[in-house]
Design brief:
By secondary structure, the protein is α+β, with helices and mostly antiparallel strands. The protein is 27% helix and 19% strand. The chain is built from 7 helices and 6 strands, in the order αββαββββααααα. It has helices spanning 9-12, 43-52, 120-131, 143-150, 155-160, 172-179, 184-188, and strands spanning 23-29, 35-41, 56-59, 64-67, 76-83, 89-96. The strands form 2 sheets. Strands 2-1-6-5 form a 4-stranded mixed β-sheet, with helices on one face. A two-stranded antiparallel ribbon has the order 3-4. The radius of gyration is 24 Å and the shape is globular. The relative contact order is 0.11.
């Protein structure tokens, strides 16, 4: 490491490495959410990534460090790095220059669709989302109305655009029902007054 300090011990203690001392690093375009590629990092690769502003991996095939873009010019500028709850995977959010994949594709998953079969339930949910209704035909809130709800408006006010501070608000269970695809009427059935300070 040429005299460089090791990875922060607090970070190192949170890592759950495989038998080769590595953790998976999922690389994502920071502004679009595209999943670009999967690489592997040991403690030193992670240290370099966190401190140098560019992504460095450990190459399992070549058994050496490689900084993305040094030979191809397809640099990955680090925007943020997060560790998952189990400590065995990293999410590296980057600004990708050029192609992320060695094949020249924008992502390493382009052209790799395995034609997964969509379940009937997923198809129904997709159809309901497209039409704005649930199976029962009750209307759904649009994003603006839902935003109003999240800002503390009552269900009635959010759904109609009116303002009524005394109308009952959704409780977390009802909101979850709404987010799972229930219509407003179904989600709010039996609603009582709930606290408005859940924002």
């Amino acid at each position: 490491m040429g005299g460089m300090p090791p990875l922060d011990p607090a970070v190192a203690a949170r890592l759950k490495r495989d038998r080769d001392g590595l953790v998976a690093a999922v690389v994502q375009q920071h502004d679009t959410g595209e999943v670009l590629m999967l690489g592997w990092m040991d403690d030193e690769a992670l240290r370099r990534t966190l401190t140098e502003g560019r992504v460095t991996f450990w190459s399992r095939s070549r058994q050496e460090y490689w900084r993305k873009g040094d030979t191809s010019g397809h640099v990955q500028w680090v925007r943020a790095v997060a560790l998952d709850g189990d400590g065995d995977a990293l999410l590296v959010r980057v600004d990708q220059v050029g192609a992320a994949c060695h094949t020249g594709d924008r992502t390493c998953f382009d052209g790799g669709d395995l034609a997964a079969t969509m379940t009937v339930a997923a198809e129904n949910a997709g159809a309901a989302t497209a039409t704005g209704t649930s199976d029962a035909g009750s209307p759904r809130m649009n994003p603006t109305q839902l935003d109003s709800l999240m800002q503390g408006e009552s269900v009635a006010a959010a759904a109609t655009g009116a303002s009524d501070a005394d109308s009952p608000c959704m409780n977390p269970t009802q909101l979850d029902s709404l987010m799972q695809g229930e219509g407003v009427a179904a989600a709010t059935a039996g609603a009582g007054s709930t606290g408005r300070d859940r924002r």
